[in-house]
C-alpha cells in the first residue's frame, strides 16, 4: 500500500498544531539565499491544516499548477489539499503566518467559510495585494492573534476563531470573488454542493481508499439530483461543465502525486480510481497535454 509523506514545516510548529489545532508565528525577517541562484525555495507538500498569512517580500508562489508573483504586502491563503511551494527572491521578508485545522473552526458557519470561500478553492485567488490602510488593519489583527495565543485568557480559542473569520471576511470584501455565487437559489446551492463534494475527496493518501466519485452520474447520485440538472446548474453557475471540473481536479491531484510523492504511476492510477495504468496515462495526457512520466522528470 502506498501512503503519502510530507515535510517542510518545523516539527515544533506541527506538534503544537496537533495539540491545539492552531498555531501563529512571526516570520523571520531575513532568509538565507543560495549562492547558486540567489533564491531560496521552501518546498511544502500538503498536510492536514490550512495556512493563512500576511507577508511583505518578493517571491514566487507555486500553487497547484499555477505560478503567482508576490511583491509588496499581501494576504495569502493555502488549502491543505493543494500542493504549493515558495521561492524567495529577496533576503528581506516580514509578516505573520498562522496554521489551523478544520476541526479548530468548530462551528458549521465557520467551516462553510473554508469549504465555500474562493480564497481556499483550487480555482480561487489565494493572494490578495493590500494598500497601506489595509496593511495596517491586517497587521493589527495578526498581532492581536499572536498576543492572545501566548496569553492565559480563558476564552482565547474563541477569540482566535473570531479573528480568523474576520480576516477571511475582510479579504473577501477587499477582493470579491469573480466566479463565486452572487445569489442564493437552487442551482447555485447544488453547484457549490458539487464543488464542495469534489474538493473533499482530496488529497488521496493511500491506494487502499481510491477515489470514489469520478463522473457526473456519481456526484448526482450522492447529491440526489438528476445528472442533467447537476450539469446544467454547474455550467450556469461556474461557466464550466461538471466533467471539466472533475477532470481538472483529478489532473491536479495526479500532478501533486507525481511531483510530491514517490508513488509509482501504477499506484497513482489505482489511488485515482483507474482500473489500469494505461487508462490513467491516456486520461492524464488528454487533460494536461503531457504524459505522467514526462511530468515526473521535471521534479527537482
Automatic annotation (TrEMBL):
Keywords: DNA-binding, Transcription, Transcription regulation. Residues 205-298 form the HTH araC/xylS-type domain. Signal peptide: none annotated. One of its GO terms (molecular function) is sequence-specific DNA binding. SUPFAM superfamilies: Homeodomain-like (SSF46689). Coiled coil: none annotated. Pfam families: HTH_18. InterPro entries: Homeodomain-like_sf, HTH_AraC. This is AraC-type DNA-binding protein.
